[in-house]
Design goal:
There is one protein chain. The protein is an alpha/beta fold. The chain is built from eight helices and 14 strands. Helix 1 packs parallel to helix 3 (about 80-90). The radius of gyration is 18 Å and the shape is globular. The model has no long low-confidence stretch (mean pLDDT about 90).
């Protein structure tokens, strides 16, 4: 059984009554070109952030927020998505105990591990972590990006993946080539990453009862993907996907902000007891009006 890896710079956060968290990952904010997967969902994302800002949520950015494998520096990303960063600034407080903006690095923005100073020009005093240990009553949840469970995106394998993404992938995207590693196109790959994260949550000596991750771009709630949950509800079998039949509250995945015209995340609230919700923000119509709506999924 593989052991939960040792993490650099973790933060402990205690969930108190009245607290509200929104956890999102995998924005992959880019330079606004045809290779910028985030651009098409920028408005949806900003509407969601406005809602969470007004409702008093703390925002946890769970890695791969910036696409720093494809782009050489942060400057062009900031120039392209200034409106996003202006919203994030409103969550931030230089006092780590008061800030409502918590940031974790992933493999595509591992740059922040050694360059917090660059991000601090926008967010004074911000601390960027590899993980957050969230204390919720008698349970501890570990929030990590999830690339730690993917050999191609951690340790030596990451260098090869980064080389390909940096040198070849943006041009392929501009020509219309779709990402073959995405969950919707390659569910088996994501199942393996999910399986490893699930095992880490269930077999570790660090007191971790559950893991919330991103990385795969596939939303998972209580160890069931949306496909599996819909299968259990409808009994319509989906080919090539091994269906799990029982929920298990030890593993969750936020999904991503680069789904086709929608973004997903996990809300954690402590009001009438502790609650976790998988939510999707996307386009909807009301009569002849196009709107952006939040739904629980």
């Amino acid at each position: 059984m593989e052991a939960l890896p040792k993490l650099d710079r973790t933060r402990r956060l205690t969930m108190m009554p009245g607290m509200k968290l929104i956890v999102m990952s995998d924005m992959h904010r880019g330079d606004g070109s045809g290779a910028d997967d985030f651009a098409k969902n920028s408005l949806i994302y900003r509407c969601a952030l406005e809602h969470y800002l007004e409702e008093g949520f703390t925002y946890i950015e769970l890695g791969d927020a910036e696409e720093l494998w494809e782009n050489d520096n942060f400057d062009q990303i900031y120039i392209t998505h200034t409106a996003v960063y202006e919203l994030l600034v409103r969550f931030h407080d230089p006092d780590p105990a008061k800030t409502r903006y918590l940031k974790i690095w992933g493999n595509h923005d591992l740059y922040w591990k050694d360059h917090e100073d660059v991000y601090r020009t926008l967010f004074p005093g911000i601390e960027i972590h590899e993980g957050i240990v969230l204390e919720m009553g008698t349970k501890s949840f570990l929030l990590i990006h999830g690339h730690q469970a993917d050999p191609k995106c951690s340790s030596e394998g990451a260098a090869v993946s980064k080389f390909f993404v940096h040198n070849f992938w943006p041009d392929l995207q501009r020509c219309g080539v779709k990402d073959p590693t995405r969950a919707a196109l390659n569910p088996g790959l994501c199942n393996e990453v999910d399986r490893r994260l699930h095992e880490w949550a269930n077999h570790n000596d660090q007191g971790i009862a559950a893991i919330i991750a991103g990385h795969t771009h596939r939303a998972v709630f209580e160890n069931l993907s949306l496909t599996e949950r819909r299968y259990l509800e409808s009994k319509v079998k989906t080919e090539r996907i091994e269906i799990k039949h029982q929920p298990d509250g030890s593993y969750y995945n936020t999904g991503s902000c680069v789904h086709p015209l929608s973004i997903t995340g996990i809300e954690i609230t402590y009001e009438d007891g502790l609650q976790l919700r998988l939510v999707e923000w996307g386009q909807a119509t009301e009569g002849h009006t196009l709107t952006i709506q939040r739904v629980e999924v």
